[in-house]
Amino acid sequence: MRLLTKAALAAATSGLAFMATGVLAQDYPWQPDRPINVIVPWGAGGSTDQVIRVLTPIIADALNQSVVVVNQPGASGATGTAEVLAAPLDGYTWTGNAIANNATYHVSGLLEDTDVGDWHVYLAVANVPLISVPADSEFDDFGALLEAFRERGEGITVGTAGVTSSGGTAIAALSHAGGFDYRMVAYDGGGPAATATAAGEVMVTSQLAVEQAELVRGGRLKALAVLSDHPLELEGVDPIPPVTDWLPDMPIFPDYFGILVPAGVPQEVIATLDAVWEDHIMNAETLRTYAMTNGAVMAPAYGEEALAAVMPVIIEKACAALARDEAVNDPSTIGIDCDTRSLMD
Length: 345
Fold this sequence. Notes:
Helices cover 39% and strands 19% of the residues. By secondary structure, the chain is an alpha/beta fold. The chain folds into two domains: 6-127 and 254-343, Bordetella uptake gene, domain 1 (D-Maltodextrin-Binding Protein, domain 2, 3-Layer(aba) Sandwich); 130-245, D-Maltodextrin-Binding Protein, domain 2 (3-Layer(aba) Sandwich), CATH 3.40.190. The strands form four sheets. The protein has a six-stranded mixed β-sheet with strand order 2-1-3-10-4-11, sandwiched between helices. A three-stranded parallel β-sheet has the order 7-6-8.
Protein backbone atom coordinates (compact mmCIF):
# COMPACT_ATOMS: atom_id res chain seq x y z
CA MET A 1 0.00 0.00 0.00
CA ARG A 2 1.33 3.43 -0.94
CA LEU A 3 0.13 6.37 1.13
CA LEU A 4 -1.95 9.01 -0.62
CA THR A 5 0.32 11.90 0.30
CA LYS A 6 0.56 14.84 -2.09
CA ALA A 7 4.13 13.84 -2.88
CA ALA A 8 3.14 10.26 -3.63
CA LEU A 9 0.23 11.40 -5.79
CA ALA A 10 2.54 13.71 -7.73
CA ALA A 11 5.00 10.88 -8.26
CA ALA A 12 2.25 8.55 -9.40
CA THR A 13 0.75 11.01 -11.83
CA SER A 14 4.13 11.92 -13.31
CA GLY A 15 4.63 8.26 -14.14
CA LEU A 16 1.21 8.04 -15.76
CA ALA A 17 0.99 11.37 -17.48
CA PHE A 18 3.13 10.92 -20.58
CA MET A 19 0.64 10.89 -23.43
CA ALA A 20 0.55 8.65 -26.44
CA THR A 21 -1.02 11.18 -28.79
CA GLY A 22 -0.37 10.29 -32.38
CA VAL A 23 0.79 6.76 -31.66
CA LEU A 24 -0.56 4.42 -34.30
CA ALA A 25 -1.97 1.00 -33.41
CA GLN A 26 0.92 -0.80 -35.09
CA ASP A 27 3.37 1.27 -33.01
CA TYR A 28 2.02 0.32 -29.59
CA PRO A 29 5.01 -0.71 -27.48
CA TRP A 30 3.16 -3.67 -25.92
CA GLN A 31 1.88 -6.43 -28.15
CA PRO A 32 0.00 -8.87 -25.89
CA ASP A 33 0.46 -12.47 -27.00
CA ARG A 34 -2.39 -14.02 -25.03
CA PRO A 35 -5.85 -12.97 -23.73
CA ILE A 36 -6.13 -10.23 -21.11
CA ASN A 37 -8.47 -10.84 -18.17
CA VAL A 38 -10.54 -8.03 -16.67
CA ILE A 39 -11.96 -9.13 -13.33
CA VAL A 40 -15.24 -7.41 -12.49
CA PRO A 41 -15.70 -7.91 -8.74
CA TRP A 42 -19.50 -7.71 -9.02
CA GLY A 43 -22.24 -9.78 -10.58
CA ALA A 44 -23.19 -9.74 -14.25
CA GLY A 45 -25.57 -6.98 -15.36
CA GLY A 46 -24.58 -4.37 -12.77
CA SER A 47 -23.17 -0.92 -13.48
CA THR A 48 -19.54 -2.03 -13.49
CA ASP A 49 -20.20 -5.07 -15.65
CA GLN A 50 -22.14 -2.98 -18.15
CA VAL A 51 -19.51 -0.34 -18.80
CA ILE A 52 -16.61 -2.82 -18.83
CA ARG A 53 -18.42 -4.85 -21.49
CA VAL A 54 -18.66 -1.66 -23.57
CA LEU A 55 -14.94 -0.95 -23.15
CA THR A 56 -13.42 -4.38 -23.67
CA PRO A 57 -14.40 -4.89 -27.34
CA ILE A 58 -12.85 -1.51 -28.17
CA ILE A 59 -9.62 -2.46 -26.40
CA ALA A 60 -9.60 -5.92 -27.97
CA ASP A 61 -9.91 -4.44 -31.46
CA ALA A 62 -7.13 -1.94 -30.77
CA LEU A 63 -4.73 -4.58 -29.46
CA ASN A 64 -5.82 -7.36 -31.81
CA GLN A 65 -6.12 -9.59 -28.76
CA SER A 66 -8.99 -11.06 -26.73
CA VAL A 67 -10.01 -9.18 -23.58
CA VAL A 68 -12.07 -11.44 -21.34
CA VAL A 69 -14.48 -10.18 -18.65
CA VAL A 70 -14.55 -12.40 -15.57
CA ASN A 71 -17.26 -11.74 -12.96
CA GLN A 72 -16.04 -12.54 -9.46
CA PRO A 73 -18.43 -11.01 -6.89
CA GLY A 74 -18.06 -11.13 -3.13
CA ALA A 75 -17.34 -8.94 -0.08
CA SER A 76 -18.60 -5.75 -1.73
CA GLY A 77 -16.07 -6.11 -4.54
CA ALA A 78 -13.08 -6.94 -2.34
CA THR A 79 -12.86 -10.61 -3.36
CA GLY A 80 -12.24 -9.97 -7.04
CA THR A 81 -10.02 -6.99 -6.32
CA ALA A 82 -7.81 -9.12 -4.08
CA GLU A 83 -7.51 -11.64 -6.91
CA VAL A 84 -6.16 -8.93 -9.22
CA LEU A 85 -3.67 -7.71 -6.62
CA ALA A 86 -2.41 -11.26 -6.15
CA ALA A 87 -1.95 -11.90 -9.87
CA PRO A 88 1.47 -11.70 -11.58
CA LEU A 89 2.43 -8.14 -12.52
CA ASP A 90 2.71 -8.97 -16.19
CA GLY A 91 -0.09 -6.73 -17.50
CA TYR A 92 -2.53 -9.52 -18.29
CA THR A 93 -4.87 -9.07 -15.29
CA TRP A 94 -6.85 -5.86 -14.78
CA THR A 95 -9.98 -4.96 -12.84
CA GLY A 96 -13.07 -2.90 -13.57
CA ASN A 97 -14.78 -1.04 -10.76
CA ALA A 98 -16.00 2.23 -9.34
CA ILE A 99 -12.63 3.89 -8.76
CA ALA A 100 -13.48 5.13 -5.26
CA ASN A 101 -14.05 1.53 -4.17
CA ASN A 102 -10.48 0.51 -4.89
CA ALA A 103 -9.21 3.64 -3.18
CA THR A 104 -11.15 3.11 0.04
CA TYR A 105 -11.16 -0.65 0.64
CA HIS A 106 -8.50 -0.03 3.29
CA VAL A 107 -10.74 2.47 5.10
CA SER A 108 -13.63 0.00 5.09
CA GLY A 109 -11.33 -2.79 6.28
CA LEU A 110 -12.26 -5.05 3.38
CA LEU A 111 -8.71 -4.98 2.00
CA GLU A 112 -5.99 -3.83 4.36
CA ASP A 113 -3.15 -3.16 1.96
CA THR A 114 -4.34 -1.14 -1.01
CA ASP A 115 -5.33 2.39 -1.99
CA VAL A 116 -5.52 4.40 -5.19
CA GLY A 117 -1.72 4.66 -5.34
CA ASP A 118 -1.61 0.97 -6.19
CA TRP A 119 -3.47 1.42 -9.48
CA HIS A 120 -3.20 3.03 -12.89
CA VAL A 121 -6.61 4.62 -13.45
CA TYR A 122 -8.56 4.69 -16.72
CA LEU A 123 -11.98 6.39 -16.51
CA ALA A 124 -14.95 5.77 -18.79
CA VAL A 125 -18.18 7.20 -17.33
CA ALA A 126 -19.52 8.95 -14.27
CA ASN A 127 -22.65 7.43 -12.77
CA VAL A 128 -25.26 8.74 -10.37
CA PRO A 129 -27.41 6.80 -7.88
CA LEU A 130 -31.15 6.74 -8.33
CA ILE A 131 -33.73 6.35 -5.57
CA SER A 132 -36.46 4.09 -6.93
CA VAL A 133 -39.33 1.99 -5.62
CA PRO A 134 -41.45 -0.81 -7.14
CA ALA A 135 -44.08 0.28 -9.62
CA ASP A 136 -46.89 -0.49 -7.16
CA SER A 137 -45.19 1.23 -4.22
CA GLU A 138 -47.17 3.44 -1.87
CA PHE A 139 -44.59 6.19 -2.51
CA ASP A 140 -45.10 8.47 -5.50
CA ASP A 141 -42.45 11.11 -4.76
CA PHE A 142 -39.25 11.33 -2.76
CA GLY A 143 -40.79 13.66 -0.18
CA ALA A 144 -43.24 10.96 0.89
CA LEU A 145 -40.45 8.36 1.01
CA LEU A 146 -38.25 10.67 3.08
CA GLU A 147 -41.06 11.18 5.57
CA ALA A 148 -41.57 7.41 5.78
CA PHE A 149 -37.84 6.85 6.35
CA ARG A 150 -37.92 9.30 9.25
CA GLU A 151 -41.01 7.70 10.76
CA ARG A 152 -40.32 4.01 10.17
CA GLY A 153 -36.52 3.83 10.08
CA GLU A 154 -35.41 0.21 9.81
CA GLY A 155 -38.92 -0.73 8.74
CA ILE A 156 -37.94 0.50 5.26
CA THR A 157 -35.78 -2.03 3.39
CA VAL A 158 -33.22 -0.87 0.82
CA GLY A 159 -31.70 -3.19 -1.78
CA THR A 160 -28.05 -2.52 -2.66
CA ALA A 161 -24.96 -4.40 -3.83
CA GLY A 162 -23.41 -4.11 -0.36
CA VAL A 163 -22.13 -1.59 2.15
CA THR A 164 -19.28 -0.25 0.01
CA SER A 165 -21.12 -0.44 -3.31
CA SER A 166 -22.35 2.70 -5.03
CA GLY A 167 -25.87 2.02 -3.80
CA GLY A 168 -24.66 1.23 -0.29
CA THR A 169 -22.68 4.43 0.05
CA ALA A 170 -25.50 6.41 -1.58
CA ILE A 171 -28.15 5.34 0.94
CA ALA A 172 -25.69 5.86 3.79
CA ALA A 173 -24.98 9.41 2.62
CA LEU A 174 -28.68 10.04 2.11
CA SER A 175 -29.57 8.78 5.59
CA HIS A 176 -26.88 10.99 7.09
CA ALA A 177 -28.17 14.06 5.24
CA GLY A 178 -31.84 13.21 5.82
CA GLY A 179 -31.58 12.10 9.44
CA PHE A 180 -33.10 8.63 9.21
CA ASP A 181 -32.32 4.93 9.66
CA TYR A 182 -33.01 2.08 7.24
CA ARG A 183 -32.39 -1.63 6.80
CA MET A 184 -30.07 -2.68 4.01
CA VAL A 185 -30.52 -5.92 2.09
CA ALA A 186 -27.37 -6.80 0.08
CA TYR A 187 -27.29 -8.58 -3.27
CA ASP A 188 -24.43 -9.80 -5.47
CA GLY A 189 -24.56 -6.75 -7.69
CA GLY A 190 -26.44 -3.60 -8.58
CA GLY A 191 -28.43 -5.33 -11.32
CA PRO A 192 -29.74 -8.04 -8.99
CA ALA A 193 -30.56 -5.40 -6.35
CA ALA A 194 -32.57 -3.36 -8.85
CA THR A 195 -34.38 -6.46 -10.14
CA ALA A 196 -35.20 -7.58 -6.60
CA THR A 197 -36.66 -4.16 -5.85
CA ALA A 198 -38.84 -4.28 -8.96
CA ALA A 199 -40.06 -7.70 -7.79
CA GLY A 200 -41.02 -6.28 -4.39
CA GLU A 201 -38.40 -8.13 -2.33
CA VAL A 202 -37.35 -4.77 -0.87
CA MET A 203 -39.07 -1.39 -0.73
CA VAL A 204 -36.38 0.87 -2.19
CA THR A 205 -33.14 0.70 -4.14
CA SER A 206 -30.39 3.31 -4.26
CA GLN A 207 -28.29 1.69 -6.97
CA LEU A 208 -27.02 3.55 -10.01
CA ALA A 209 -29.23 4.82 -12.82
CA VAL A 210 -27.43 2.60 -15.33
CA GLU A 211 -28.54 -0.46 -13.34
CA GLN A 212 -32.15 0.69 -13.22
CA ALA A 213 -32.69 2.34 -16.59
CA GLU A 214 -34.47 -0.52 -18.35
CA LEU A 215 -36.63 -1.28 -15.32
CA VAL A 216 -37.64 2.38 -15.08
CA ARG A 217 -38.33 2.61 -18.82
CA GLY A 218 -40.32 -0.61 -18.64
CA GLY A 219 -42.51 0.68 -15.82
CA ARG A 220 -41.31 -1.86 -13.24
CA LEU A 221 -39.58 0.76 -11.08
CA LYS A 222 -40.67 4.29 -10.17
CA ALA A 223 -37.68 6.64 -10.06
CA LEU A 224 -38.28 9.23 -7.33
CA ALA A 225 -35.02 11.20 -7.18
CA VAL A 226 -31.47 11.23 -8.49
CA LEU A 227 -28.52 11.92 -6.17
CA SER A 228 -27.51 15.01 -8.08
CA ASP A 229 -28.13 18.72 -8.04
CA HIS A 230 -29.60 18.55 -11.56
CA PRO A 231 -32.49 16.52 -12.98
CA LEU A 232 -31.52 13.28 -14.69
CA GLU A 233 -32.34 13.06 -18.39
CA LEU A 234 -32.96 9.39 -19.12
CA GLU A 235 -34.04 8.42 -22.62
CA GLY A 236 -37.75 7.62 -22.75
CA VAL A 237 -38.51 8.90 -19.23
CA ASP A 238 -39.64 12.24 -17.83
CA PRO A 239 -36.77 14.16 -16.14
CA ILE A 240 -36.10 12.72 -12.70
CA PRO A 241 -35.86 15.42 -10.01
CA PRO A 242 -32.65 15.93 -8.02
CA VAL A 243 -32.53 14.98 -4.37
CA THR A 244 -31.44 18.55 -3.60
CA ASP A 245 -35.06 19.59 -4.22
CA TRP A 246 -35.68 18.06 -0.76
CA LEU A 247 -32.20 18.09 0.81
CA PRO A 248 -30.56 21.22 -0.63
CA ASP A 249 -27.40 20.99 1.50
CA MET A 250 -26.59 17.37 0.69
CA PRO A 251 -23.08 17.06 -0.83
CA ILE A 252 -23.16 15.51 -4.28
CA PHE A 253 -20.30 13.59 -5.91
CA PRO A 254 -20.41 11.50 -9.10
CA ASP A 255 -19.15 7.93 -9.07
CA TYR A 256 -16.47 7.31 -11.72
CA PHE A 257 -16.18 3.89 -13.35
CA GLY A 258 -13.45 2.39 -15.48
CA ILE A 259 -10.49 0.05 -15.64
CA LEU A 260 -7.66 -0.18 -13.14
CA VAL A 261 -4.30 -1.79 -13.83
CA PRO A 262 -2.06 -2.70 -10.89
CA ALA A 263 0.99 -0.51 -10.34
CA GLY A 264 4.19 -2.40 -11.06
CA VAL A 265 3.21 -3.84 -14.44
CA PRO A 266 5.76 -3.23 -17.22
CA GLN A 267 5.82 0.38 -18.37
CA GLU A 268 5.12 -0.61 -21.97
CA VAL A 269 1.74 -1.95 -20.82
CA ILE A 270 0.82 1.46 -19.40
CA ALA A 271 2.18 3.32 -22.42
CA THR A 272 0.05 1.13 -24.66
CA LEU A 273 -3.12 1.49 -22.61
CA ASP A 274 -2.61 5.25 -22.47
CA ALA A 275 -2.40 5.22 -26.26
CA VAL A 276 -5.50 3.04 -26.61
CA TRP A 277 -7.45 5.40 -24.35
CA GLU A 278 -6.31 8.42 -26.34
CA ASP A 279 -6.84 6.85 -29.75
CA HIS A 280 -9.98 4.78 -29.21
CA ILE A 281 -11.80 5.45 -25.93
CA MET A 282 -11.87 9.24 -25.57
CA ASN A 283 -14.41 9.67 -28.38
CA ALA A 284 -15.86 6.18 -28.67
CA GLU A 285 -19.36 6.34 -30.10
CA THR A 286 -20.40 3.08 -28.42
CA LEU A 287 -19.42 4.52 -25.05
CA ARG A 288 -21.25 7.76 -25.81
CA THR A 289 -24.39 5.88 -26.85
CA TYR A 290 -24.24 3.73 -23.71
CA ALA A 291 -23.98 6.84 -21.52
CA MET A 292 -26.84 8.67 -23.21
CA THR A 293 -29.11 5.63 -23.15
CA ASN A 294 -28.48 4.70 -19.53
CA GLY A 295 -28.33 8.02 -17.71
CA ALA A 296 -24.54 8.08 -17.31
CA VAL A 297 -22.10 10.89 -18.09
CA MET A 298 -19.35 10.18 -20.62
CA ALA A 299 -16.12 11.03 -18.79
CA PRO A 300 -13.11 9.20 -20.28
CA ALA A 301 -9.72 10.16 -18.89
CA TYR A 302 -6.39 8.62 -17.91
CA GLY A 303 -3.18 9.56 -16.14
CA GLU A 304 -3.06 12.81 -14.18
CA GLU A 305 -6.44 13.99 -15.48
CA ALA A 306 -8.15 10.82 -14.28
CA LEU A 307 -6.64 11.02 -10.80
CA ALA A 308 -7.56 14.70 -10.49
CA ALA A 309 -11.18 13.86 -11.34
CA VAL A 310 -11.55 11.01 -8.85
CA MET A 311 -9.64 12.36 -5.85
CA PRO A 312 -12.49 14.59 -4.53
CA VAL A 313 -14.82 11.58 -4.70
CA ILE A 314 -12.30 9.34 -2.93
CA ILE A 315 -11.75 11.89 -0.17
CA GLU A 316 -15.47 12.44 0.36
CA LYS A 317 -16.24 8.72 0.42
CA ALA A 318 -13.47 7.99 2.95
CA CYS A 319 -14.41 10.89 5.20
CA ALA A 320 -18.14 10.12 5.00
CA ALA A 321 -17.40 6.59 6.21
CA LEU A 322 -15.49 8.07 9.13
CA ALA A 323 -18.33 10.47 9.96
CA ARG A 324 -20.82 7.57 9.99
CA ASP A 325 -18.54 5.47 12.24
CA GLU A 326 -18.16 2.92 9.44
CA ALA A 327 -14.40 3.33 8.97
CA VAL A 328 -12.36 0.38 10.21
CA ASN A 329 -9.15 2.31 9.45
CA ASP A 330 -8.87 6.07 9.74
CA PRO A 331 -8.57 7.80 6.34
CA SER A 332 -5.36 9.41 7.58
CA THR A 333 -3.72 6.01 7.13
CA ILE A 334 -4.03 6.50 3.37
CA GLY A 335 -3.06 10.17 3.50
CA ILE A 336 -6.51 11.80 3.72
CA ASP A 337 -7.13 14.63 6.21
CA CYS A 338 -10.85 14.64 6.94
CA ASP A 339 -10.66 17.89 8.91
CA THR A 340 -9.75 19.74 5.72
CA ARG A 341 -11.18 17.25 3.22
CA SER A 342 -7.80 17.18 1.46
CA LEU A 343 -4.66 15.11 0.99
CA MET A 344 -2.13 15.30 3.79
CA ASP A 345 1.29 16.84 3.18
